[in-house]
């Protein structure tokens, strides 16, 4: 096992940090009507969960909810190439069979990801930008929650900040990934003026320094 590979024990610990509900209501109800009755993020046609290999092993020890994802189209095969030595694209049996305790990290953290400021400091969470855009088939924002960020519970933000802080210390490649996505957000902002939301954890919300380095 390489230095960067996660263990099942680590996966169990990370899951314990990601138990908070994102909103006080079922946010899947916002998008189901526009996606054939399926929450947008619960369809592999829209978002394919990327699991750690130890995570898949852990989940498969709990039941038959998860399996490896098989690409069917040319676009799928391009996505498949994004896997690395420690991660693999997977799919579940479907949202109607969802077992909350067996949600993957990708499911639990969606639709947010870390935001790293211009100093290179992890300061909060931002929306995965692809899901703030409109679906070309429905002309509806892919994830409606991106327009209702005030509905996101502070407890969710705090616990997820703690998770990402730990995983990025554990895996340098995770930090590098989000460092680049954060830089891209700022480039788009400077070029187009398109703003983006950064959700701060409780301990940073009153900081007078953070705003100076966000954009």
Identify the notable features of this structure and list them briefly.
two-stranded antiparallel ribbon; 3-stranded antiparallel beta sheet; alpha+beta; globular; 215 residues; 8 helices
Rg from alpha-carbon coordinates = 17 Å
Q: Please tally the β strands and state the result.
A: 5
Structural class: alpha+beta
- Beta content comes to 5-15%
Q: If helices are DSSP runs of H or I spanning 4 or more residues, what is the number of helices? A: 8
| Mean pLDDT reading | 95
Strand order of the largest sheet: 1-3-2
How many strands, which pairing sense, and closed or not: the largest β-sheet?
3 strands, antiparallel
Helix amount, in percent? 25-40%
Domain module count: 1
Shape: globular
Distance between the termini: 39 Å
Compressed to H and E, one letter per element, the order equals HHEHEHEHEEHHH
Low-confidence residue ranges: none
Walk me through this protein's architecture.
By secondary structure, the chain is an alpha+beta fold. It has one domain (8-213). Helices cover 35% and strands 11% of the residues. It has helices at 8-17, 28-31, 53-60, 74-80, 105-109, 154-170, 172-192, 210-213; strands spanning 50-52, 66-68, 87-92, 112-116, 122-127. The strands form two sheets. A three-stranded antiparallel beta sheet has the order 1-3-2. A two-stranded antiparallel sheet has the order 4-5. Strand 4 (112-116) and strand 5 (122-127) form a beta hairpin. Helix 6 (154-170) crosses helix 7 (172-192). The longest helix has 21 residues, at 172-192. The protein is globular. The termini are far apart. The mean pLDDT is 95.
């Amino acid at each position: 096992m390489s230095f960067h590979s996660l263990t099942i024990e680590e996966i169990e610990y990370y899951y314990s940090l990601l138990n908070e509900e994102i909103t006080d209501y079922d946010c899947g109800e916002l998008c189901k009507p526009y996606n054939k009755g399926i929450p947008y993020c619960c369809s592999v046609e829209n978002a394919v969960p990327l699991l750690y290999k130890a995570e898949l092993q852990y989940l498969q020890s709990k039941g038959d909810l998860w399996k490896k994802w098989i690409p069917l189209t040319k676009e799928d095969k391009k996505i498949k190439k994004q896997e690395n030595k420690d991660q693999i694209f997977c799919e579940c049996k479907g949202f109607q069979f969802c077992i909350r305790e067996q949600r993957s990290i990708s499911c639990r953290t969606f639709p947010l990801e870390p935001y790293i400021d211009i100093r290179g400091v992890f300061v909060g969470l931002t929306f995965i930008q692809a899901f703030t855009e409109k679906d070309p088939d429905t002309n509806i924002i892919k994830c409606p929650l991106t327009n209702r960020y005030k509905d996101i519970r502070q407890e969710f933000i705090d616990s997820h900040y703690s998770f990402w802080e730990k995983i990025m210390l554990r895996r340098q490649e995770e930090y590098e990934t989000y460092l680049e996505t954060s830089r891209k957000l700022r480039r788009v902002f400077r070029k187009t003026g398109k703003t983006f939301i950064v959700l701060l954890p409780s301990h940073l919300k009153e900081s007078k320094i953070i705003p100076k380095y966000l954009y």
